[in-house]
Amino acid sequence: MENITVYTSSTCPYCTLAKEYLDEKGLEYTEKNVQKDSAARKELMEMGHMGVPVIVIGEEQIVGFDKNKIDLSIDK
């Protein structure tokens, strides 16, 4: 299984939905809260993103909460 990282913020409802969806699928992931972690915020900006959620599965970056893209990425 590919490593999964979810970049979030504390007030983002789509971040919560994304984490709940990954939990429902029984997938382990690392959460990086860009509000609380300046290094995570810098990582996200270096990838070219300013908003959350960004879900990184292996090398693929999924911007926003997109169930279809998540499913396609984990089924590879």
Q: How would you describe the overall organization of this protein?
A:
- The chain is built from 3 helices and 4 strands, in the order βαβαββα.
- With 76 residues, the protein is α+β, with helices and mostly antiparallel strands.
- It has a single domain, classed as Glutaredoxin (3-Layer(aba) Sandwich), CATH 3.40.30.10.
- The protein has a 4-stranded mixed beta sheet with strand order 2-1-3-4, sandwiched between helices.
- The longest helix is centred in the first third of the chain and has 12 residues.
- It is globular and about 30 Å long.
- The N and C termini lie close together (9 Å).
Question: What key attributes describe this structure?
Answer:
alpha+beta; Glutaredoxin; 4-stranded mixed β-sheet
Instruction: Provide the domain count.
Output: 1
CATH class: Alpha Beta
Number of helices: 3
Annotated CATH topology: Glutaredoxin
> What gap, in angstroms, lies between the N and C termini?
9 Å
Taking all residues together, what is the mean pLDDT? Answer: 95
Q: Spell out the CATH superfamily.
A: Glutaredoxin
Shape summary: globular
Unreliable sequence segments: none
Radius of gyration: 11 Å
Total number of β-strand segments?
A: 4
Q: Main β-sheet, in a few words?
A: 4 strands, mixed
Class computed from helices, strands and strand pairing: alpha+beta
Q: List SSEs in N-to-C order.
A: EHEHEEH
Strand content range: 15-25%
Across the major sheet, the strand order is 2-1-3-4
Report helical residue fraction: 25-40%
CATH architecture: 3-Layer(aba) Sandwich
